[in-house]
Amino acid sequence: MLRFLCLFLLAGPALAQTPAVVPTAQASALKTYSLRLRPGDDLRQQLTAFVQEHHIRAGTMLTCVGSLTVATLRLANQEGPSVYKGHFEIVSLVGTLSVNGSHLHLAVSDSTGRTIGGHLLDGCRVYTTAEIVLGELPEVEYRRETDPIFGYKELVVYPVPPAPRKKKE
C-alpha cells in the first residue's frame, strides 16, 4: 500500500499535465465463431480473410491454441519484422479484429519453454493446427484513426446504428 501511495504521489504532477481523455465504451451482444486452420496456412492472412468474408466490423480473439513452424512478429519498439523458424506452440493470441483493420499480438514458446511475443504479421505458418474461437460484437464498429498525441492509428469504437425498419405494404 505504501508503494502505491508513493507511486501515486510521484506520478501526480505528470498525471496533472496529461489531458483528460474519456474512453468510449459500447455494449454489444456477442456472436461466436469456431474454426480450425490447417498445416501451412498463414495465421494472419486466414484471420483477415475470415473477417472480410463475414463482414466483421468489431471482433475479438477469444482463444487460439496450436503450433507454428514460422513465427513472424514485430517486436516492441522495432520497425521491421523478426522471423523465427522451428517448432512453436501458440500460447496466446489476443487482439481486436475488423474489416477496418485489426490489431493482434501473438506469443509463442519453443521446445525449451522460451516465450516471445509481439505484433502478429503475415508469414506465421501453421504446423499442425490452429484452433480458434472468435467473438463478433454486431452492435459495435471498430475503426482505426490517427491518435493526435502519438501519430499511430489507434482503435476508436462506434455504435452501429440500428437497421432501418422495413415498411409494411
UniProtKB/TrEMBL annotation:
GO terms for molecular function: DNA binding. Residues 1-16 form the signal peptide. It comes from the Bacteria. Keywords: DNA-binding, Signal. It comes from Hymenobacter antarcticus. Pfam families: PCC. PANTHER family: DNA-BINDING PROTEIN, PROTEIN, PUTATIVE-RELATED. This is DNA-binding protein. Residues 27-158 form the PPC domain.
